[in-house]
Amino acid sequence: GLVVSQRVVTVQEGPVVRTEGSHVTIWCNVSGYKEGLQQDFEWSMYLPSSPEREIRIVSTAQQNYAYAVYAQRVNAKEISVERLSRDSALLHIAKVTALDQGLFECYTPNTDGQYLGSYSARTNLT
Question: How far is CA 28 from CA 23, 75, 85, 97, in A?
Fold first, then answer.
C-alpha cells in the first residue's frame, strides 16, 4: 500500500526560563519529510503584548531574515542558528534580554510538494 508520512516539527518543551544576560539554547527537530532533503529552519518570536505579530529572528536559508529589532544582534553573532543535522537545529541567544521574553517559533519550509502535517512548533521563553 501507499505510505504517506506527515511532517512533524518539535521544539524544546517550555517554559524555558533564563535570567537576563545568560545564554539560552532552544532545539528544533523535524521528521516525516521526504528523505534525502536537507531541511531549513526559520526562527521567529511573538511578544506577550502582541501575540499575533510575528517578529523574524534568524534563518538557515535567508541571510537577511531578521527584522530590524533583531538584525543587529544576529549580525553581531549574539543570536545564531546552528544546524546539527539535516533535520535538527539549535537557536542560540548569547545574552538574553527582558525584550526576548515571549513565544518562540521554529518553522520548517515545505520541501515535499504537498502540505501534510505540522510545519512549526512553539515554546515560551521567560
Answer: 17, 22, 11, 21
Rounded to an integer, what distance in angstroms lies between the CA atom of residue 122 and that of residue 56?
Answer: 14
CA gap 14, 27 in Å, rounded: 11
d(CA 94, CA 71): 14
Q: Amino acid letter at 59?
A: S
pLDDT 10s digit of each residue in the chain, 126 long?
Answer: 455 568 899 999 999 999 999 999 999 999 988 766 889 999 999 999 999 999 999 999 998 999 999 999 999 999 999 999 999 999 999 999 999 999 999 999 888 777 788 899 999 999
* pTM reported for the whole predicted model: 0.91
Positive or negative, the CA dihedral 99, 105, 110, 115 is negative
H or E stretch including 14? Answer: none
Instruction: Please give the grid coordinates belonging to residue 43.
Output: 526562527
Residue among 91, 97, 23 at smallest CA distance from 57? 91
Of 14, 13, 121, 35, nearest to 85 by C-alpha is 35
